[in-house]
Structure formats: structure tokens, C-alpha cells
Write a structure and sequence with these properties.
It is a single chain. With 171 residues, the protein is of the alpha+beta class. 25% of the residues lie in helices and 44% in strands. The chain contains three helices and eight strands. Strand 2 and strand 3 form a beta hairpin.
């Protein structure tokens, strides 16, 4: 299986063509990186334009030199300033034990996690759950009066994922 991995950071855009085979280490057959030009006067709009230009160049190189095709799986990794991350703890307190379900977690998330204005959520990971004060790796299907769910979430500026997808798909 062949995968194309894009790495978009504050100073450069890179890509790698990775070949994955069950039971063996991944093999990188191609890598490339393009610097985002340094700006003496930082402007969000100019930085975005420069990043998308570098992404377009990297996409073209991967297609032309790296042997990428439309059949490949594409992953995009974003780092600052293109992504913002946070952790949040959601808490349930109930007079009686209630079933711990994914829909309960979704309900708590809607009540307790404010969306970041102008941002879209691109990732979420439940990384710790405690029931009745004890860490529980598999909470769903159990009952509890007190539960805490620790979430990792990442957000990107609204419209950015679509701009990245459009830039990659045009090459």
C-alpha cells in the first residue's frame, strides 16, 4: 500500500511517499521539502498564500518525481500556526449510576466543549477516562455516578482544510 504524507509547518512544506507492507517497516521511496519564504513583515494572508504555493510545488514534485497517483492514500500533518490544540476534561455527576455510552459522551461534549470561533475541529482523541475516581481504559457499557473524560482536540482555521485539499487535488 502506498501513502503520500504531507507535512505542513510554519517554515516549510514537505512530503514523503511511503510504502507499507504488513510485517515489515515502512519504506520511503521519495521525500521532498520546500521552504516557505521568510517574511520581514508577517501577514496571515501572505503566509497562507506562501504556504499554499509551497504545497502546490511539493504536490507537483510528488506527482512528477515521486510516482504518486490518484489511487494513493493521502495524509496531511499540520503544525503551528496552522493548527491549535487543547485538552478538555468533561465531567458527569449524577445522583444515580447511569450507563456510560458514546451518546452520553457526545452529549457531554456538546454541553461542555465550546467550539473555537473561526476554527473547525480536525481531530479528537479520548485519552483518559475515570469512573468513580478509577482510571478505566474501556468505560463504555459500564455504569457510574461520577465520570471524567479527558479529550485532546485540534482545530484549524475555517476553510483551511478545503484549501489544502484543493491545492493537492489540482496536481
Amino acid at each position: 500500500m502506498k501513502q503520500i504524507i504531507f507535512d505542513i509547518g510554519s517554515g516549510s512544506v514537505g512530503a514523503a511517499v511511503a510504502h507499507l507492507h504488513r510485517g515489515s517497516a515502512p519504506h520511503l521511496s521519495y521525500t521532498t521539502r520546500v521552504a516557505i519564504p521568510f517574511q520581514h513583515e508577517l501577514s496571515g494572508r501572505r503566509l497562507l498564500s506562501a504556504m499554499l504555493s509551497a504545497l502546490g510545488e511539493v504536490s507537483e514534485r510528488v506527482l512528477r518525481e515521486g510516482g504518486a497517483s490518484g489511487e494513493d492514500t493521502i495524509f496531511v500533518s499540520l503544525s503551528a500556526p496552522w493548527v491549535s490544540a487543547r485538552t478538555t476534561t468533561l465531567t458527569l455527576r449524577s445522583a444515580r449510576a447511569v450507563p456510560i455510552t458514546r451518546s452520553l459522551l457526545a452529549s457531554l461534549r456538546e454541553e461542555g466543549v465550546a467550539q473555537m470561533k473561526g476554527m473547525v475541529q480536525i481531530e479528537e482523541k479520548l485519552f483518559r477516562t475515570t469512573l468513580e475516581g478509577y482510571e478505566t481504559p474501556s468505560p463504555f457499557g459500564k455504569r457510574a455516578r461520577h465520570a471524567e473524560f479527558a479529550l485532546f482536540q485540534s482545530f484549524a482555521p475555517a476553510g483551511l482544510p478545503e484549501q489544502i485539499e484543493e491545492t493537492i487535488s489540482h496536481h
